[in-house]
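Postdoc handover notes: sequence design on the structure in folder B. Input tokens:
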């Protein structure tokens, strides 16, 4: 089983509140639950630390190191990327962009732009993605990134999705490997659809949630959540959301 965590929004002080909740406490409880599931891999898909603090990343590392499996992290628009990469740099927990899961391959993309809220890959990262996909013919692949490729139905969030998504889809569809799913964060809500034969998932945050189908920024009272993914033989993939219920 693969677990996806996203939008943890930790702070330097683990007691400090973020939009009325304690993000450290939320993440700690989520991790306590998923430890019992014995996952084989955890993907953490951006907006890891909200205040650009080294201590926030150290707090995150301490929690992630309690997991019984490899953890791979990628940045979101709130992350200080060089700082993140320098601290999340252990054998177990790091920011490497490729990891195998049995016969499957997980490809982690950085969709963040310095000083920008919205996502974009840009020419260099698009070229890197094409190269990686071409180098793994026949493999079943999960692609993870922070920003979504598709609109989720919330106007203000849809303006922040990957700006060059139209250049991404041909790479995913025409590669010699088989891209089975794209998973992302950023939208702080559940989203699941299929686009051109590829499963597309958005995942609620471990921190606060955004109101679904809202034209403007709005929070709701949804509970912390995570996504599970079960890759199987023949490219079969199942997935779902689990929300905590003791807050």
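Designed sequence:
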């Amino acid at each position: 089983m693969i677990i996806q965590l996203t939008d943890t929004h930790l702070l330097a002080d683990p007691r400090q509140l973020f939009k009325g909740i304690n993000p450290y406490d939320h993440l700690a409880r989520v991790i306590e639950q998923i430890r019992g599931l014995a996952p084989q891999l955890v993907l953490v898909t951006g907006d890891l630390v909200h205040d650009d603090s080294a201590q926030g990343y150290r707090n995150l590392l301490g929690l992630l190191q309690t997991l019984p499996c490899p953890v791979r992290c990628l940045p979101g628009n709130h992350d200080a990327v060089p700082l993140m990469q320098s601290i999340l740099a252990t054998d177990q927990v790091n920011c490497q962009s490729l990891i195998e899961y049995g016969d499957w391959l997980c490809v982690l993309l950085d969709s963040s732009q310095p000083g920008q809220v919205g996502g974009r890959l840009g020419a260099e990262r698009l070229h890197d993605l094409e190269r990686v996909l071409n180098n793994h013919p026949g493999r079943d692949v999960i692609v993870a990134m922070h920003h979504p490729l598709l609109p989720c139905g919330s106007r203000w969030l849809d303006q922040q999705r990957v700006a060059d998504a139209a250049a991404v889809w041909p790479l995913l569809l025409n590669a010699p490997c088989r891209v089975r799913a794209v998973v992302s964060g950023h939208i702080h809500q559940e989203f699941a659809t299929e686009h051109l034969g590829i499963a597309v998932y958005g995942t609620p945050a471990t921190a606060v949630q955004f109101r679904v189908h809202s034209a403007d920024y709005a929070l709701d009272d949804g509970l912390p959540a995570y996504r599970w993914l079960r890759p199987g033989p023949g490219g079969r993939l199942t997935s779902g959301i689990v929300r905590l219920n003791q807050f």
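Context for whoever picks this up: The helical segments are 23-35, 54-64, 81-87, 122-134, 155-158, 165-174. Don't rerun without checking with the PI first.
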